[in-house]
């Protein structure tokens, strides 16, 4: 698109982080790499093998999440000027509260509710109260930031295989849901900034939207792109 407010060059760092996230296929962790003692016990070796598989999957999700998070922070700082030492996530939540006037994007509240039921059990009453006071479009970002801080600061215990621990929280699923919430938050930020300006993508095929042949509204595209039948939904707009 060639419009004054939107430049591919200005958005390059934002899209590059998303391209990195989309390109992650595998991360391999070998927990027994420097622990030869496990080879003297069959059950210890089996346990380590299972833990390696789990941690490899966990790390792949964490790497993907961190790339998506990098895109989110870059976008927020493009939309909002930083104030003193205010956190980027706070700026994003503040921006959504002031500017997002649309119904919740499809799939957002459902994903948020699932993550909230799991992670909410671990959060303090004060944090839970703060979440309830957030704008509906900003709740997910606030919740995910709490989980992200636990991993970023090393305060969260890493999981172990289910067969060896009853009632284990599904960390991998939580990170995957967090990634989804952040992606949907990015979409809502874009809707807030560009959605109501009636921008048109004249030739969507040039943007790899092969299912779309006619010009489409940027607003409709952003609101539906994450859905499998987005081409049908957008064509009906």
**C-alpha Rg (nearest Å):** 21 Å
Read across the widest sheet, the strand sequence of neighbours is 1-2
Distance between the termini: 20 Å
- Beta-strand content estimate: under 5%
Number of helices: 9
Average pLDDT, rounded to a whole number, is 87
SSE series: HHHHHHHEEHH
The computed structural class is mainly alpha
- Low-confidence spans: pLDDT under 50, at least 5 residues? none
Number of strands: 2
Helical amount = 55-70%
Shape: globular
Main sheet overview: 2 strands, antiparallel
Structure, explained:
The longest helix is centred in the N-terminal third of the chain and has 38 residues, at 42-79. A two-stranded antiparallel sheet has the order 1-2. 56% of the residues lie in helices and 2% in strands. The protein is globular and about 65 Å long. The chain has helices at 12-23, 42-79, 88-99, 108-119, 125-132, 139-152, 171-194, 218-224, 230-235; strands spanning 200-201, 216-217. The relative contact order is 0.12. It has 237 residues and is mainly α. The protein is built from 9 helices and 2 strands, in the order H-H-H-H-H-H-H-E-E-H-H.
What structural keywords apply?
single chain, 237 residues, mainly alpha, two-stranded antiparallel ribbon, 9 helices
Give a quick summary of the entry.
This protein is mainly α and 237 residues long.
What topology emerges from the helices and strands here?
Blueprint: H1 12-23, H2 42-79, H3 88-99, H4 108-119, H5 125-132, H6 139-152, H7 171-194, E1 200-201, E2 216-217, H8 218-224, H9 230-235
Antiparallel strand pairs: 1-2
Helix pairs in contact: 1-2, 2-3, 2-7, 3-6, 3-7, 4-6, 4-7, 6-7, 7-8
């Amino acid at each position: 698109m060639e419009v004054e407010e939107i430049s591919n060059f200005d958005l390059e760092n934002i899209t590059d982080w998303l391209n990195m996230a989309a390109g992650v296929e595998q991360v391999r962790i070998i927990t027994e790499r420097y622990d030869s003692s496990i080879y003297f016990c069959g059950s210890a070796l089996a346990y380590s093998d299972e833990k390696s598989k789990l941690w490899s999957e966990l790390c792949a999700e964490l790497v993907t999440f961190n790339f998506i998070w990098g895109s989110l922070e870059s976008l927020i700082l493009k939309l909002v000027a930083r104030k003193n030492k205010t956190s980027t996530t706070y700026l994003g939540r503040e921006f959504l509260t002031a500017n997002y006037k649309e119904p919740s994007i499809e799939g957002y509240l459902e994903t948020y509710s699932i993550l909230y039921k799991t992670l909410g059990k671990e959060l303090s009453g004060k944090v839970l109260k703060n979440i309830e006071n957030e704008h509906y479009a900003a709740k997910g970002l606030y919740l995910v930031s709490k989980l992200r801080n636990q991993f970023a600061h090393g305060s969260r215990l890493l999981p172990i295989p289910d067969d060896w621990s009853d009632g284990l929280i599904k960390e991998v699923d939580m990170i995957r849901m967090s990634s989804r919430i952040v992606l949907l938050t990015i979409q809502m930020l874009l809707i807030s900034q560009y959605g109501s300006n009636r921008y048109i993508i004249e030739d969507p095929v040039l943007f790899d939207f092969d299912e779309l042949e006619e010009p489409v509204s940027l607003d409709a595209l952003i609101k539906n792109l994450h859905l499998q039948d987005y081409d049908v939904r957008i064509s009906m707009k």
